[in-house]
Each structure stands twice: as structure tokens, then as C-alpha cells.
Amino acid sequence: MLRILFICAIYLMEVYLGGFNNLRIGFYAPLKSPYHGVASGDRQVARNFLLAFEGAGFSTLVVSDLRVYLGDEGDVCLVELERLADLEFERIRCEWESDISLIPDLLFCYHVYYKSPDLLLSRLSRYFSLPYVIAEASYSGKRFGGVYARGHFLSSEAIIGSDLLLQLNAGDGAGLRDLFAYYGREVDIISMSVFGDFSGWQGGVEDDLLPRRFDRVRDIMLGLGWDVVGKKVGGKKVGFGSDYCGDCIFIVSAMMRAGDKFRSYEILSESLLVLIDFFGWRLVIIGDGVMGAEVRALFSKFGDRVHFTGFLESDDLFCWLSFGDIYVWPAVGEAFGVSILEAVVLGLGCLVGDRLGVRGLVDGKGGILCLEGDVVEFSAGLLSFYNDYCCGGALLEGMKDYNLAKGASMHGLDGAIAILEREFSRLVRGSACH
């Protein structure tokens, strides 16, 4: 008890002397650390939160890189993972108690669900009496039994113990409210738009940031025999002509792995058959993964109309997306999709599967939403966009203007920083007063 009172006294003194602009955040992402070696949307969102914390003037400590993911084996994996989490907890506890300056003002966990429960921060928050925030938590009662029963229980326990939830996916709201109602707890659930740092992207070619990379992408396309002369890319034309001349370029960026991602590639491949007898269209596929060979096989029937770039870093990704006209992704099982956000920010018209989280990025003004998993609807969407492109791109032009404005106003860092500053300051102030 004396130990806890001493820690709380130091904490209160530091809060009131230091104010709320230099909060210290203890960060943890159990599904994938921001420093994980394999790229993914989860890793990118984790990194985006670190950027937002920096922009808000917070200092951040990544508490642990322990990965907690229950694959097809389910709860069997938890025996070893809980053992490792116990060791991590003891390591962190000893470090913080031996040097109380290491104790953060607030603990922040990104992405908690039944396959990736938080085994660390929820325990640390209870032990050190620290405010605990989760971004992108999800709960579904149907996971109560089965091979993920304990993962479901542990993730629910962490969510129930949180002091604030930041909701990036609108599809998560109902389940979370049901969970808190069942336990008779009231916790603020704050909606946030998916965000990123696109300041460099929005400058584009007009700021002469990436001319060599653009030239390299153009040369690759010309080498493939694609007609990109006349295309308007990043505000500048590759040659002469209207904005919608040359080949219509469909584009997608997604990891190649089993499950929902592979099913999305299957739907895209099947849907493209509607255009197989038409000329003047191409597809660029950005990404790689363990199912890379299988994904390439799906599109082999289209020959050199389809080009695979492999995995791309941010600057090269920007250049390739900028040459695209329509972003296409069936989005099976997608929470929201960082790659969809990137397409919206660049003003691409989007053809995507209709899911609640995706709907937060793409609506009827910025794209076409198709029934999730429906090949017929997706085929019709491809044909509709292709016809619009061939007829001058009136629909695409309207979507471009809308998405560019939406990306700038709703999905940049500034809006996220404002929410984090407001909510974290309120939370820490309230914690200091209790």
C-alpha cells in the first residue's frame, strides 16, 4: 500500500507540474509491433499512432514487442504466450519500480480482439493504477465458446478494464456497447477517422519531390506496352491529352496471405473476366506475401494486362498509386483497410466491398460499394468504371475531387492529434483527481 501511495504521489506532482502537453505514453500493439519486420496495415496504423503522439508533443515508450496472435490452433498457443507475458510483466514491473521516472502517465494499446488479447498493459494499468486506453477494440459474443474461448475471455477482460476506447471501425461499436452494458460499466467510446501522415504525398509531383521515381514507373509501364502518354499524374501530365486518355489503370495494394485476403484476390480475378474481351485496361497489383505464387496464378489468364510490383515502400507506393485511375479491392473481412485510405487520399475512385469499417472511408460519392463477396456486383462495378473512363471520366472526376477534399479534411494527422490531446488530457486530469 505504501508503495502504491508513493507512486501516486509522485505521479500527481509530475502531472500538475508538467501539465498535459508532455504526457508520457506507454505503447503496446500485441498483434504487430510498429517495429515488426513484416509490413501490414496493422503495423502501419501502429506507426501512425506513434506519429500522432509525437505531433501532440507526447513522449512514447514502446513497452514491449511481444507478439500475441492466436492462429488456426486457437487457445493452444496461449499456454506459451501467457508464460512469456508473465516474464515481460515482471521485467517491466521491476524496471519501473526501480526507476519511477520510467512510469508513463498513460498506457495505450492498439488493436485488441479475440485472436490478439492484451496480456500486458491491462495488468500494468491495474498494478500501477494508470489510465488505460485501447484503440480498435472489438468484441463479438459468438466467440464465447470454441477454439478461441480463452482468447475471447482475455480480450474482453482487457476491454472491460479500459478507461477509454478509440473506435476506428464503426462496425465495432455495437458489440462494445453490449459488452459494457452487460457488465454495468460506462466507458467513453470515441469515434476516430482512420488517419495517416500524408503531408509528403499531398505535395506530390508539383513540389518536385519524387520526379525520378515517377519517371521510373512511367518507363516500366511504357516498357510493358501500356499507353500512359497523356495521363495526368500527381498534377502533371505524362504527355499531351485529356486526363482520361490512354489505358484505364485499375490498381490495388494488399498483402498476399491465406484467408480473407486470398478470397478477395479470387473475387477480383473472377470479376475481371467481364472485361477480358475489352481493350485499353490494365491492372497493377502491389504487395507480396506467403501466397504470392498463388495470387499470381489467379491472374495469369490476363497475360501482360496485369503487372505485379511486389512490396513497395511509401514513396514508391505513392508513385504507383498516382498512375492508377480506379482502386479495386473486394475487401472481404476487411476492418477498414489502410490501402483503401491511401487511395482515397490520392483522389482515386474506389470499387470496394461494402463493410461498415470500409464505409467510413468510401461512400457513394467517393466510390462504389459492392455487396461483400459478390462477384456479380463487383463485375458490374468494374464495367461501370471502365465505361465511365472511356466516355471521359465524369464520374471519376467527381470522385477525385470529393476524395481529395475528404482525405485532407478527415484523414490527416491534425484531426487525430486534436482528439488525442483532448481525450488524453481529460483522462489523465480525471485520474489525477481521484
Write a structural description.
The protein has 434 residues and is of the alpha/beta class. It has 2 domains: 2-195 and 413-432, Glycogen Phosphorylase B (Rossmann fold, 3-Layer(aba) Sandwich); 199-410, Rossmann fold. It is 45% helix and 15% strand. The chain has 16 helices and 14 strands. It has helices spanning 2-18, 41-55, 78-98, 121-128, 149-160, 173-183, 199-203, 211-223, 260-271, 292-298, 314-323, 338-345, 356-359, 375-390, 394-410, 413-432; strands spanning 24-28, 59-62, 106-112, 132-137, 164-167, 188-191, 232-233, 236-237, 248-253, 281-286, 306-310, 326-329, 349-354, 367-371. The strands form 3 sheets. Strands 2-1-3-4-5-6 form a 6-stranded parallel β-sheet, with helices on both faces. The protein has a 6-stranded parallel β-sheet with strand order 11-10-9-12-13-14, sandwiched between helices. Helix 12 (338-345) links the parallel strand 12 (326-329) and strand 13. Helix 2 crosses helix 16 and helix 8 (211-223) packs across helix 11 (314-323). Mean pLDDT is 87; it is low at 4-18 and 235-242.
Level-2 CATH architecture of the largest domain: 3-Layer(aba) Sandwich
What percent of residues are in strands?
15-25%
Q: What is the overall silhouette?
A: elongated
CATH topology-level fold name of the largest domain: Rossmann fold
The biggest beta sheet reads:
6 strands, parallel
